[in-house]
Each structure stands twice: as C-alpha cells, then as structure tokens.
Write a structure and sequence with these properties.
Largest sheet: 7 strands, parallel
Number of helices: 5
Shape: elongated
Order of helices and strands: HEEEEHHEHEEEEEEEEEEEEEEEEEEEH
Mean pLDDT: 90
Strand content: 25-35%
Helix content: 10-25%
Distance between the termini: 30 Å
Length: 290
Amino acid sequence: LIIHHSQTRSDVTVAVKHSNGVPPASVGCLSIDEQTRIIDMVEKPTDRSFDFYSLGIYVFTKDVLIEALTSLRDGQYDIVFDVLMPLVEQGRVRAYVFDGYWSDVGLAHRYFETSMGLLRKPPVIDLSDKKHAIYSKPVARRPSVFGTKAQLENALVANGCTVLGTVRQSILFPGVTVREGAVVENSIVFDDAIIGRNATVRSTILDQRTVISDTSFIGFGNPTCPNSHYPDALSSGITIVGTDTLVPSGIRIGRNCLIGSDLGPESFPGRDIVCGETIIEESRWQKISS
C-alpha cells in the first residue's frame, strides 16, 4: 500500500476491495478509473451498486493532510466527509486494490464472527504463518496450566491461563482461569477473567477481569429478542459482560444481554436476567460509545 502510494505520487491512497456485487453495508463504496483514481465515493450507500468498497485504511502525504485539516473551521471533523471526500472531488485520491484477508470488526457480532473464524478448519487467516506477523504488544506470562480433568476442543488459549474445566470452540486471552466443572463454549474471554466452579459461559464476550461466580450461567436459553438498549448491536445471540464486573453466584443471564463494567453483586436482581435485558451505568456506556 505504501509503495503504491509512493509510486503513483498520490496525495491520498485508499485501500479497497472488489465488491463482487455485494459490498458490506457498513462501509464506503467507490468507483475508480483506469489510473486507479477514485472518481466517485459514497459512504454506506443504500440505493446504488459499486465495484469497490473502502477498507477504511488511508495513506496521506503529510503536507496534504495538514493542509486539509488546517482548512477546517473548528476542531471537530469527520475524516471521510470533511477530509477525504473533498479531495476525491478534486481528483487527488487513488485506490490500492487489496485482495487479501480483511474484516470489519466495528460491531460486536462482526468482531465475534471474525474471531470465531480463527477456529475454523482451515482458519480464515493462519496465525502461525510467519508472513503475517502479529504486531500487538507481547505479554510476558507463565505457560498455561491444564488440570488432569481439563477438556479442550478447538480452542485458542494464550499464555498464563489455568484451565481445570472444559473449553470448547472458544478463545482465551492471557491469564484466564477456568475452574473445576466450569464450561466455556463458543465464547471470547479477555485477560484475567475468572470462571468459577460449575459455571457455564456460552456465546458470550467477557471483558477483562470479569468474575463469573460459581454455578452461574451466562448465555442460557435461545436468542428470542434483540437487546433492549442496543438492538442493532446485539441481536445475534451474543451476550457481553463488561470489565471488572463480578457476577454473583447462581445467577443466570440470557442471550443478547448487555452487562456493564465495574458492577458488583448488588447491581443484579434476585432473578434470571432474560434475553435482551441490560444492566449498565448508562452515562458511562454512552461515554465509551462516543
């Protein structure tokens, strides 16, 4: 991408893919000429078809970007509408056609589906392929420990984990603890989360340092309705539990539920949390979302 940008002496280069007639609904679409110059670009079109769509990855020539930002009247701007599209209209933006792997993980269900793609046979992208280096910050942890009764089936387990229960079709980030009798299934569990004895976590994303107490069941039942607060983001059956939340013992949380961050046992009602319910500190969530 950068080599192409340099060779074409472009002011801006946008990474794009062929749409094959069905571009993703959440991206910008565009047309290019024979010199790879972008001649038309529409953000998330609903009534037109395009041959290419944007990957949301841009290379700017430094002076061009500074000039574009300086011309804006206030400190708030949208990189696509206020910077990129005016340059497209001026004929100063080129496309770089990328045919490799790419996925949009901006929504919860897309992030979940993309992550689960790493567990397919073959995976959507091979993490062991040395040509595709992983550039995230390495975490120095001890090797993972697996108990004599541990069961693992098609799982990715990072360093520092302790697995004494069952993990199926799931991804465990560094430092996760799965205690005796616990079952983690079709889920993504972030750093240092703890799943207690005989607890079940199914079709769930657990954020960092979440504690699921003994005998609790996260993700029970069928996804019969979308989330009450965020129906567009949570309707595929995934439940999300936020950072540093302690789910009390014996509680059951259904599908498409949203449980916020920094919550203690006092935040949970003495009943099942059914499909689509939300328990959250609203102002905090809105701040994070924005």
